[in-house]
Specification:
membrane, 15-stranded mixed sheet, elongated, 15 strands, nucleus, 358 residues, cytoskeleton, Ciliogenesis-associated TTC17-interacting protein, cell membrane, 7 helices
Length: 358
């Protein structure tokens, strides 16, 4: 059972600050190029127990023949014995404008899975935002449209990662740094950034200086979500935590720095075996695909009642005769239905030969 609605957004929306808009205008291609790399962290509890993993990568890409950036971020783990995760895949212009972005969040409870998906895509002079929430009660879909003219200074969840990398490299955050963003209900809200200053953190056996940035998204319902992120001088993420959360992401090993290192030095990553049954996201996709195929097969059989009757006759006849050569029996049974297949059909002969060699 589903519920769908489409809502054009015409009302006045909050605006980004002048400093935030100027910041985006002044970003050079060289600034962004230095932020094209990958981060890999682990999710840990307050006691230091590993709960999952977190990764974010930025690379050059092309979208509809337009040069852009491709960002992929994902977080998966088990918090308070509850499997949960998020993933973001997005194409952004060189000015961090949304070309297309997909967000997926899930929480797997004991008797049900809560699932939220958000899809944003630029169409002509509008941004279309579709939000789908799947719960036990059913599926609800909402679609909002925003004129591009109203999105000046908007920072999506994907472009936020690039913004923070650039800010951490510059180590200066202008006052009144207020962008626009989308809250959990896909409503345009204010998004603020402020400096947390320098802090020493231990990574492996080394104590390093890290620079902190606070980001707060204030929703239209007067609630806010705040994150504290700390970075190495080159922009690599060291730690990330949402205030109020029982878990945080942290870096375990120092990465190869982007500035002043041998570019020919290639990092070696340990190969991890893929056990897809234990991967919540892959297993969820498997169950979705399994359900789609089952529904498709059931629909086809329902639309072709003669198929069900034909297969029932074949199985009944097969069990009554109990032939030693099932392929030959099936060929003879179905031969009258193949009006254009002469005796000795090579397809059946090949199948029979393969069966005989087993």
């Amino acid at each position: 059972m589903g519920d769908s609605e489409t809502t054009p957004i015409e009302a006045e929306e909050p605006k980004a600050s002048v400093n935030a808009i100027e910041f985006i205008k002044n970003i050079s291609p060289r600034d962004v190029e230095k932020c094209v790399f990958a981060d890999s962290l682990v999710t840990v509890s307050d006691s230091g127990r590993e709960l999952g993993d977190f990764s974010v990568s930025v690379s050059r890409a092309s979208y509809n023949e337009e040069l852009c950036f491709l960002l992929h971020a994902s977080s998966h783990g088990v918090i308070d014995e509850v499997p949960c995760g998020t993933s973001i895949v997005a194409y952004m212009s060189e000015r961090f404008e949304i070309l297309e972005e997909n967000q997926h969040e899930y929480v797997k409870l004991e008797h049900k899975i809560l699932d939220r998906k958000v899809h944003m895509v630029r169409q002509d002079d509008q941004l279309v935002v579709s939000r789908t929430i799947s719960e036990k009660e059913g599926v609800k879909t909402q679609t909002h449209t925003f004129p591009l003219s109203s999105l000046t200074g908007v920072v999506s969840e994907a472009s936020n990662f690039l913004i923070m990398r650039i800010l951490s490299r510059q180590k200066i955050i202008p006052e009144n740094m207020t962008f626009l963003s989308f809250d959990a209900d896909s409503v345009i809200s204010k998004s603020t950034y402020r400096a947390l200053g320098w802090k020493k953190q231990k990574i492996g056996e080394e104590l390093v200086n890290t620079y902190g940035i606070e980001r707060t998204v204030i929703s239209a319902k007067d609630t806010s979500s705040t994150w504290h992120c700390f970075f190495l001088p080159d922009g690599h993420l060291v730690s990330r935590v949402q205030l109020g959360s029982p878990a945080m992401m942290k870096l375990l090993h120092l990465p190869l720095l982007q500035d002043g290192v041998d570019k020919n030095q290639i990092p070696v990553f340990e190969k991890k075996p893929l056990i897809w049954e234990e991967d919540i996201e892959l297993y969820s996709k498997f169950l979705d695909r399994k359900g789609e195929l089952k529904a498709d097969y059931t629909t086809h059989i329902r639309q072709q009642p003669e198929l069900k009757a034909l297969m029932a006759d074949f199985l009944q006849f097969l069990l009554l005769r109990k032939p030693s050569d099932v392929f030959s029996f099936a060929r003879d049974f179905f031969a009258p239905f193949a009006s254009q297949s002469p005796p000795g059909n090579p397809c059946w002969d090949t199948a029979h030969r393969k069966a005989s060699t087993r």
